[in-house]
Amino acid sequence: MLSVQLRHAFPGFSLDLSFEAPAGVTILFGRSGSGKTSVVNAVAGILTPDAGRIAVGDAVLLDTARGIRVRPHRRRIGYVFQDARLFPHLTVRQNLRYGAWFAPKDAPRGDFAGVVDLLGIGHLLDRRPSALSGGETSRVAIGRALLSAPRLILADEPLASLDAARKAEILPYLERLRDAATVPILYVTHSVSEAARLATTVVALKNGRLADLGSPQRVLGDPSVLPGGPREVGALLFARVATHHSDGLTELDAAGVPLFLPRVDQPPGTILRLRIPAHDVILCRTRPEGISTLNIVPGRIVEIRPGEGPGALVTMETQAGRLLSRITRRSAAALGLKVGMSVHAAVKSVAIAPADIGPGAGTD
Amino acid sequence: MALSLKVSFWATAASLPFGLFTAYALARWSFPGKQFLNGLVHLPLVLPPVVTGYLLLLTFGRSGWLGAWLAEIGIVFAFRWTGAALAAAIMAFPLMVRAIRLSIEAVDRRLEQAGATLGASPPWVFVTLTLPMILPGILAGTILAFAKAMGEFGATITFVSNIPGQTRTIPTAIYAFLQVPGGEGSALKLVLVSVVVAMGAVLLSEVLARRVAARIGGA
Hints:
Chain B: It holds the Pfam family BPD_transp_1. The structure holds two protein chains of two kinds. By secondary structure, chain A is α+β, with helices and mostly antiparallel strands.
């Protein structure tokens, strides 16, 4: 478990927050300039805050009150930098082994073959970093951090410099890592999709302060803490792959509710997380007839939250989980929507982006 | 000829650790007197070589304050080949420091930070990351310094004179041959030798630098 308390004044910006991150992947989430990278740098020891305390499990890395400040190379943090920072004069193999060389002798040895296999970089071992593609570079950087026998892995927007196709290539590796890792991971991003697919816990930052902390289902549904505001609000559902149909659709089972998606490349039985953007969910008072939408989910309204503009965010409880719908206030009035009312949510199959779907069970 | 190579080799080899240290200090550290040190290092480049030679004589001569003390423990520079090497080293030092300093300043500090997060202490970061990355600069500085040492004349002749077999390096020998009638032939041979050596040094540095650059992937 990671516990962080920080106070630091930058010119024109101040950081003042504290949070505790449980095991698994903790997403540090916020728009650029919210202090995400500063938090990560403070944990790594690259930034020394004015005051604070940082501990991973029993190991206190920083405690300004007691004058403890462990130097960066003794912190045993596996840091995956946004710009990878592979060593150009070493081969991929040497880059991967670099950290293990300095790790304490009694530290658990990273499983070299296992990590290489997990990240699919076996064929790259004898190359130099300059001969790698962007996606390969990211994977090697992740492997290098994993193999340094770290207490904690920090990842500072490791995918931010990659295009959508490369991101789609790496995210599955990160999901495998989340499910295999024994050390906690602190992962910085401003992408809702990455947060939705990877998070065990989401820590939302705003102007150097803690805005929210909690499960991705809850935090990613709160427009006030999302970097992109109401446009990025969505629900996170968990569903099991039921069958693949011959017309190219995959049928999911979300706690008994069937959902149809364009083919998802996962074997039946796999648990998926899928983010359903609130602006893609249509609300109907009665079960809609003669409509092209395949997914109709009945539910009951539990909250109607008017936005600052013409919109409103409607939360409904369904058998599949909480769904969010962003509609106009005018529609809400026209339909006479009220808390407690039964409604049907319609979700187009093709509205759910492949980037928002990935394997992974929920935590609560 | 052999003497010239010996002088230049020792001048370069002995000044390399100091050059590396000075370059690192100038590139990375901030300390009082930094600009003074910088000026001191560059002084031989801008002073007339004769002045440098004379200052060396004043300092390291048998009656010089440092020379007298060193003579007591058996180290004599004045009018010895070691003195020629010292003069050559001092004259070549600024070139070496400049080349190495530039390469240190070009190193991406973020890579060193990455090394630290992977558990490497500062000395290990230097040995495993900084040093390999500045190797081309060290190479260039060393070869430049070697070539400069081979050609050093003014400070040498002032400090250690032009004693055959002791301090007669190629440039001073050429000068000596040109002073006597009919010496042009011998002088020309030495001129050719020095052209070949200088050219060889430049080509060698080029090849080595390219090989290193290729190894680290043009970074």
